[in-house]
Amino acid sequence: MLTDIGQLLTLRGESAPRRGPVLNEVGLINGAAVLCGGGKVIAVGRQGEIIGDPWIKRNRKKITELDCKGRVVLPGFVDCHTHPAFVEPRLVDFEKRIAGASYEEIAAAGGGIRSSVASVRDASRKELAGKVLQAFNAMLRHGTTTVEAKSGYGLSIEAEIKSLEAIADAARRWPGNVKPTLLAAHVVPPEFAGKPDEYVEKICQEIIPLAARKKLAESVDVFCERGAFTLEQSERVLAAARRHGLDTRAHVCQFTASRLNRLLEHRPASLDHMDCVDDEDIAALASGDTIAVLLPGANYFLGHKSFPDARRLIDSGVPIALASDYNPGTSPTISMPFILSLASTHMRMTPAEAIAAATVNAACALRIQGRKGTIEPGKDADMIVLDTHDYREIAYWFAWNRCAEIVVGGEVQQLSAAIKPLRTKHNSRE
């Protein structure tokens, strides 16, 4: 039982996903307590009501209590867009970008996504799983208890399956919840240069069926963008995913606009990035439940002056979520609190909107809102205790981890263990 909670943000509400003014509703309870059992939330309310319950009075000595000392408690963050299955940072890309090269120029010169492929293909499954677990543990320390994890740096049957197996291995050793996604359609690999349709055919006829048969992926993603895959190719990938019973999602409109109505026909759980969206597509999004996942970490790290237009989307009734986009090239951060700060300072989202977008709406982007994203009876008991006394401080203290306690499945996680040093040395020239 969590007691002496100063501000409890339950995020309870009738609507999911949240949109428009409802995105500001955080279900705030002052002076609260939460009772958990069997990994689930049992009771939520004001502390006097909870501890005054006759059953709790009779069994108080059997209940383990976590004194929250008047701090803020909210649902664990749901990071609904990450790319953890990589081996090395992309430092050359980083330096080129500092010197003025654009993302697309770096990719055309052989950098970008393709530059991560060789190390992933060369890595053992065990080594790759270790890298993924290291990222998951860092996410947990910053309050993320559920994460979507993509493949996408292998770009071959063997390497993509190995990446998904590594994600599964890491997930078994991590207390949080992992939702794996196949992203073989990230870019065209070097051996298929000039033959993108042949690679798409391989994805649809071989990689997706194998990932589905092995139950290694729950969804399929595609990068629909200039320099990656066309709208027609993306539709083929999403159609193949649906044939094999997998959810769909897409990276889209990051650098250039694309017609979303055709992608929406494949009922994607989310469309991610969404920097370049026109009014017609916004209206289509507002009329459905596909989540627009905004990824301000990428805009920040790429040095963009503009960020996703969250206010335009929210005011139009589009359900939005926030995620870290953790990856080695464009958003090497695991910190959801930092993403919330970016959303408030650069996208003009209120702290309440940002929290809802990173919890209940992010759970909707993974279609797990029945279990995650809110604190209410019957939901998984995933909560974070923040060393703050006002929830608005989460976005205020940027680049500062204020997580004091993490509860996953009703169990308090030990976060004080020293971070193990990296064992793999990086070649500074690569």
Notes on the protein architecture:
The chain is α/β, with parallel strands linked by helices and 430 residues long. The chain has two domains: 2-75 and 375-412, Urease, subunit C, domain 1; 77-365, TIM Barrel. It contains 17 helices and 16 strands. Strands 1, 2, 3, 4, 5, 14, 15 and 16 form an eight-stranded mixed beta sheet that branches. An eight-stranded parallel beta sheet has the order 6-7-8-9-10-11-12-13. Helix 7 links the parallel strand 7 and strand 8. It is globular and about 70 Å long. The relative contact order is 0.17.
| Shape label | globular
Structural class, from helix and strand content? alpha/beta
Which residue ranges are poorly predicted, with pLDDT under 50 across at least 5 consecutive positions? Answer: 417-430
CATH architecture of the largest domain: Alpha-Beta Barrel
What percentage of amino acids are in beta strands?
Answer: 15-25%
Oligomer: single chain
Quick synopsis:
The protein is of the alpha/beta class and 430 residues long. It has helices at residues 47-51, 54-59, 91-98, 103-108, 117-122, 125-141, 157-172, 196-213, 231-243, 260-264, 279-286, 296-301, 310-315, 336-347, 351-357, 360-365, 393-396; strands at residues 2-9, 28-37, 40-46, 66-67, 72-75, 77-79, 144-150, 177-185, 219-224, 247-252, 270-273, 291-294, 320-322, 383-386, 403-408, 411-412. The chain has two domains: 2-75 and 375-412, Urease, subunit C, domain 1 (Roll); 77-365, Metal-dependent hydrolases (TIM Barrel, Alpha-Beta Barrel), CATH 3.20.20.
